[in-house]
Design a protein that fits this description.
alpha/beta, globular, 15 strands
């Protein structure tokens, strides 16, 4: 249709109606466009949160507040807990994914009979099993590599993961988390003789090891792309288990390790030739990870954590972590829990 025929077709009342429809559609588009740019308000917040910088996500979650996105404590049984209790015989246990190589967190103590699993995370797993099944030893531990923590939950291989697992927005889209049970931050671990001074320009041209799927790698990769970390920093070395980074460091294959300061301090206790360099450059919270729809189990674990903070947490900290972390106020007390409003 040429221009003259198009104009002719718009003459009269029919043309007026057509133009009115077109104008209405255009106006609707203009009015609705800003709505597509908004971020969903975080539950419990007074007003919508506008996305700013790299931390704001499309669902209103920010990593700084991810540890607050959990359900309020409750003791009622639900389908998840009932299924765990319905197990019979030797299978009537809580199945927990843990680490067996993180000194003082979850590790096999060679000085015990059968190289028993011990550590801060192991104590918490025993406490949860005691609450749900009435027996602290009614727990089956499964060693899970760092990069298999989420798949193990989603596939049903474990009921939960208690393995120095940081609560993040990306992970919350895949699994559910309890309230935080420990606060830490990323730090640099390097030989005492190294010229590396911390998370700064001294990492230029250096090989840094991180665990695959860890928050450490995500942070370094993002900072290097944004120019906050020297572009020459080599992040190519990643390993399935974080302790493998310490081995790479000892072999001289990498110059530094970046991991949670709480883990790095334990590794420094294992090897007196390495030390923490600089201060922590993030704030992170460990949580117990469970399946997305396991609301009853999440609430139950949160109730356990409230009780544990009042009776048990400090003893476990003193037993396992005080020797390496001391009275650091960021680590030596359980974090104050916060829950989703109205949950």
């Amino acid at each position: 249709m040429d221009a003259r025929r198009a104009r002719a077709s718009l003459r009269g009342w029919g043309g007026v109606a057509t133009m009115a429809v077109l104008c209405a559609l255009a106006l609707a588009f203009v009015l609705l466009l800003p709505c597509t740019q908004r971020v969903t308000a975080e539950p419990g917040r007074a007003a919508p949160r506008v996305a700013t910088g790299a931390q704001a996500r499309a669902d209103g979650c920010t990593d700084a507040e991810a540890h607050e996105r959990t359900l309020a404590p409750a003791g009622a049984d639900g389908p998840t807990i009932e299924a765990i209790r319905a197990r019979t015989g030797a299978k009537r246990k809580l199945v927990v994914g843990v680490d067996q190589n993180s000194y003082r967190w979850g590790y096999r103590n060679p000085n015990t009979e059968g190289a028993r699993l011990e550590g801060f995370d192991i104590d918490l797993a025993h406490r949860i099993a005691e609450d749900i099944l009435g027996d602290r030893n009614a727990v089956q531990f499964k060693a899970i590599p760092t990069n298999q923590r989420i798949p193990a939950i989603q596939d049903g291989r474990v009921d939960m993961v208690v393995r120095t697992m940081t609560i993040t927005c990306d992970r919350l889209r895949q699994v559910a988390f309890s309230a935080p049970y420990f606060r830490t931050g990323q730090q640099v671990l390097a030989p005492k003789s190294s010229a590396i001074t911390g998370y700064d320009g001294s990492l230029a041209g250096r090989k840094v090891c991180t665990a695959t799927g860890s928050t450490a790698y995500a942070k370094l990769d993002a900072d290097r792309k944004a120019g906050r970390l020297p572009g020459s920093t080599d992040l190519a070395t990643t390993v399935p288990n974080q302790l493998d980074c310490l081995v790479r460091l000892q072999l001289g294959e990498v110059d530094a390790v970046v991991t949670d300061g709480a883990l790095a301090a334990s590794q420094a206790a294992q090897d007196p030739t390495v030390e923490l360099k600089g201060e922590a450059f993030t704030t992170e919270y460990y949580g117990v990870a469970m399946k997305k729809d396991a609301d009853d189990l999440v609430r139950r674990v949160n109730r356990v954590l409230v009780d544990y903070a009042a009776n048990g947490w400090q003893k476990s900290y003193d037993d396992w972590l005080s020797a390496t972390l001391g009275k650091d106020p960021a680590a030596s007390k359980p974090p104050a829990p916060r829950y989703l409003s109205g949950s």
